[in-house]
Amino acid sequence: MPLPNYTKLMPSILKLLSDRNERTTPEVYEHIYQAFNLTEEEKKLRQPSGQDILITNRTRWALKYLKEAKAIESPSRGIYHITDRGEGLLKNIQMS
Asked: Rounded to an integer, what is the distance from CA 49 to the centroid of its chain?
């Protein structure tokens, strides 16, 4: 199964944060690994450039776009929490 792209990661990240607790970047990564049942090999796959691990890169893009959409906030570097807007988006996703 191919690795999920960043748009597929967004609902999972919102779900993780929906308890209103702050999470660190490593906690978000671990959640993604478990939510998508990634193997050890998949967790180590690198981008074609070899510069970055593919799933962590995609997770960072998902976090960036969720922040830009004001669905999540980052009160300090590497710390995330959901906003009211993010909770509304998650409810819409779950109803679809």
From this structure: 22
Cα–Cα distance for residue pair 80/32, rounded to 1 Å? 15
Q: Span 6-95: which CATH code?
A: 1.10.10.10
List the chain pLDDT tens, one digit each, 96 residues: 689 999 999 999 999 999 999 999 999 999 999 999 999 999 999 999 999 999 999 999 999 999 999 999 999 999 999 999 999 999 998 876
- Measuring CA to CA, which residue among 47, 55, 2, 52 is closest to residue 29? 55
Domain ranges, ordered by start, for the chain: 6-95
Alpha helices for 1-96 (secondary structure H): 6-17, 25-35, 40-44, 54-68, 84-95
pTM of the model: 0.93
**Sequence-distant contacts of 30-39: CB under 8 A, at least 24 apart:** 32/59, 36/3, 36/4, 36/12, 38/3
The 3-state DSSP class for residue 59 equals: helix
